[in-house]
Design brief:
Length: 123
C-alpha cells in the first residue's frame, strides 16, 4: 500500500470526497508533497471544499489524467489551509510542475487569487 508521501510524487491523483449520505465523489487533481502528507488547491466554492468542510474524510489514489485509478487508495483526513500554506504549496507547485505550474498560478491570480482559491492539506 502506498503512503501519502509517495502519492505526493504522482503527477495526478484521484481525490475522493464523500457526501453526507456516504456517496463517493472522485476527482482527478494535481497534488504536491507536503511533509508526510499532500496538498492541493482548488476553487473555494467547489463541491469538494464543501464536502471536506462537512467531513474531512478522503481517499487518495494514484491515477492517470482521466482519473483512471492506478493502485490502492490511501485513507486520509483533509483540512483547509491558510495563507502560509498557500505560499508553501505554490512554491511546491512550481517546483513540481515547472512552466505549466507557473502558468496555472498566473491564471489563478487573474481569476481572483487567494480570494477565490483555498489550499487543502491531507494527512
Amino acid at each position: 500500500m502506498p503512503t501519502l508521501e509517495q502519492l505526493g510524487s504522482e503527477k495526478y491523483v484521484l481525490l475522493t470526497t464523500f457526501r453526507r449520505d456516504g456517496r463517493a465523489v472522485p476527482t482527478p487533481i494535481w497534488v504536491m508533497p507536503d511533509g508526510d502528507g499532500v496538498a492541493f488547491w482548488t476553487v473555494r466554492d467547489s463541491g469538494k471544499v464543501k464536502r471536506i468542510r462537512n467531513s474531512g474524510r478522503v481517499t487518495i489514489t494514484a491515477c492517470d489524467m482521466r482519473g483512471n485509478p492506478r493502485g490502492e487508495s490511501v485513507e486520509a483526513t483533509a483540512r483547509l489551509g491558510g495563507d502560509d500554506d498557500m505560499k508553501r504549496v505554490s512554491r511546491a507547485l512550481t517546483k513540481k510542475y515547472g512552466l505549466l505550474g507557473r502558468m496555472t498560478l498566473l491564471g489563478s491570480r487573474l481569476r481572483g487569487g487567494s480570494a477565490r482559491t483555498v489550499i487543502v492539506l491531507a494527512s
